[in-house]
Structure formats: structure tokens, C-alpha cells
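// run 5 | inverse folding | seed 20
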């Protein structure tokens, strides 16, 4: 009979999944570092982000379950997201030809990460392996990608520091939930919320493209920020009006 320690320990399969994810992340990030001549601090950021990712997976994934094809796809997407976030502060803002080529490659990787965002969800539905962990894993990667693209847009001087509000607003909401417990109540599925999220990603990715002017990028990103504030305001109002029932369940 297995001991309690063995039950809660990460399985060999999960460790292998994290091992190949480490190899993939290391490979793509080293290739980017050599090709784009990124500073050593880039690799430090990569290592830190992957360590945080591995810690979260080991902490929250049930040890007695197979990780699944959908979560493995999300794990592969994580390698791209880590690359995009870690390299964002070092993107060149000049119009030199190598810089333009780098921006097109960066935008292409961001598009691939966005496509994989739909693939893992489709796999989960097709295989009937949806889970709360998978949904949260996917959502956290989306949030990290959003913040990374905001950093990239700011590094390229396509918008001011205000653009970081697009990537930080969700983290501010989560932080507020530590003090206002009613903010942590589950929200119903919302087409409006998904549409605003897609608009954010599209405007951020368009702002990265070399032909796009800072003026056009700022206008579209400002529109995305207004829509995001409106969406969060609606959700907060919905949670506020139902705070009594949530607090009573929490106290029970």
C-alpha cells in the first residue's frame, strides 16, 4: 500500500513532462539569445519564469492523474510565452533592418502562441479532459502573454508606460481579492469578457508590427484599455451585489 508521501509526490510522468518543457524552453530561448544577441540577464529571467511555472504545476496538479495532451500543449505554449516575456524589454526600437526582422519574428512567435491557445482548449473538449487546473493554467499564461506584449510595445516606443495597465489590471484585481474576499467569487462565462480579451491581444500584436505608427498603436490600445476598464467594472459590480451570499458561504 502506498504511503501518504508517495501519493502526494509528483509522478514520474509529470516530472518527465516538466523535463521536456525545460528542454524546449531552453532550446528556443538560447536560439533567441544567440540570434538576437540578448544580454545574460535575459537567460536569468527565463530561468526564473520557468522555475515559477514548474513550482506552480507541481503544487497544484493532482499527483495521481495523467497530465494529458491538452495540458502538454499548454506547456509547450508556455515555452513561447516565457520567450516573449523575457525578451520583451530588449526589443530594438530603431528602424535598422536587423531590428525590423527581429520584430517580425517576435510577432510571428506571438501569433503562434495565440494559435496554440485555441488548440489546447479544442484538445481538452475533444478528449473530454477539461479541468479547473487546465482552465487556470491557460488563463495565467494568457495574462503573462498580455503583460509581455505590453512590455514589448512600451520598449518599442509605440505607447507610453500607461499601456502596462492592460497587462497589470488582472493582477491588480487578483491582489484586491486578497483583501476583499467577495472579489474571489466565481464569475459566470461571458462572451463580453472573451471578446475584450481577444481585442486586447489583437491590438497589442498589431502594435508590434514594424509598419504600424505609434499614433495608430496608441489609439487602438487606448480603445482596448477603455473596454478593459468597462469589462472589469461590470464584473466588479456583479460581484459586489452578490457579496453577501459569498461571504456567508465563506464564513460557513
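// decoded
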Amino acid at each position: 500500500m502506498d504511503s501518504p508521501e508517495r501519493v502526494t509526490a509528483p509522478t514520474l510522468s509529470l516530472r518527465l513532462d516538466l523535463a521536456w518543457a525545460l528542454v524546449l524552453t531552453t532550446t528556443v530561448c538560447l536560439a533567441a539569445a544567440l540570434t538576437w544577441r540578448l544580454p545574460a540577464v535575459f537567460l536569468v529571467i527565463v530561468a526564473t519564469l520557468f522555475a515559477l511555472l514548474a513550482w506552480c504545476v507541481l503544487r497544484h496538479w493532482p499527483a495521481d492523474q495523467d497530465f494529458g495532451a491538452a495540458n502538454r500543449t499548454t506547456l509547450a505554449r508556455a515555452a513561447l510565452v516565457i520567450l516573449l516575456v523575457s525578451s520583451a524589454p530588449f526589443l530594438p526600437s530603431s528602424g535598422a533592418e536587423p531590428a525590423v526582422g527581429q520584430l517580425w519574428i517576435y510577432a510571428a512567435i506571438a501569433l503562434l502562441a495565440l494559435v496554440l491557445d485555441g488548440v489546447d482548449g479544442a484538445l481538452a473538449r475533444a478528449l473530454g479532459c477539461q479541468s479547473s487546473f487546465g482552465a487556470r493554467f491557460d488563463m495565467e499564461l494568457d495574462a503573462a502573454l498580455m503583460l509581455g506584449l505590453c512590455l514589448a510595445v512600451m520598449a518599442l516606443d509605440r505607447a507610453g508606460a500607461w499601456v502596462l495597465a492592460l497587462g497589470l489590471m488582472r493582477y491588480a484585481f487578483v491582489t484586491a481579492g486578497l483583501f476583499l474576499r467577495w472579489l474571489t467569487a466565481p464569475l459566470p462565462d461571458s462572451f463580453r469578457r472573451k471578446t475584450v480579451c481577444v481585442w486586447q491581444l489583437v491590438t497589442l500584436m498589431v502594435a508590434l508590427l514594424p509598419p504600424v505608427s505609434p499614433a495608430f498603436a496608441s489609439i487602438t490600445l487606448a480603445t482596448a484599455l477603455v473596454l478593459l476598464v468597462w469589462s472589469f467594472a461590470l464584473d466588479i459590480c456583479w460581484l459586489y451585489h452578490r457579496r453577501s451570499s459569498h461571504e456567508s458561504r465563506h464564513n460557513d
